[in-house]
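SAMPLE LOG
Freezer: B-3
Tube label: C17
Construct: single chain, 218 aa
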Amino acid sequence: MTEIIAIDGPAGSGKSSVSKQVARELGYGYLDTGAAYRALAWAVANGFVAFETADGHPRVALEDFAYSISLNPDDFWVKVSGTDVTEAIRQPQIAQSVSRVAQVSQVRAYMKSITRAMVEASGLPGVVVEGRDITTVVAPEAKNRILLTATEEVRLKRRSAELAPEQAKNVERQVSERDAQDSKVVDFMTPAPGVTLVDSTELNFEQTVAAVLSVIRA
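STRUCTURE (predicted):
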């Protein structure tokens, strides 16, 4: 059975970069679950998947969501209906619409099922799975469950470090808005029972990777 290393955390906590490096160090696969939500938001925005509201209840035509993603941390790509959307799903307009689809319970249940299916079909000894509710909803039985976080100030600073001032302002607003929206769905700042907290506020990248690996190897 493929081992799951479950890593949760809010936007800007370093989940993706740290998880990729941890996967490399362990020789495991890497799965960015947030990419699926972004890809779905892109698919809805570009007419590949319908998003409707009937009787006050939102519904997404997930049967039309042809999604695939690489589990190789050194060759990462995301595709929808055969179209490479790796870069497109990182555009600001997509980031702004992710919470709209993520709040639909039908979507969250679907994402959980495809995450489990991709891990099981990977044929790898293990997969580092990162996202927002991996430790509590997607893989609550995982032996290694980690909540990676940092103060909002530090997370915003990291996200904005390599951007122009105007872009930085937009990113700061998006991170704050995503935190506010996602907190209505899942508590991503407090570790659940059995989940180990790794606070990277005072750590650099290498130190954070080492801290996560020490939890896993312990």
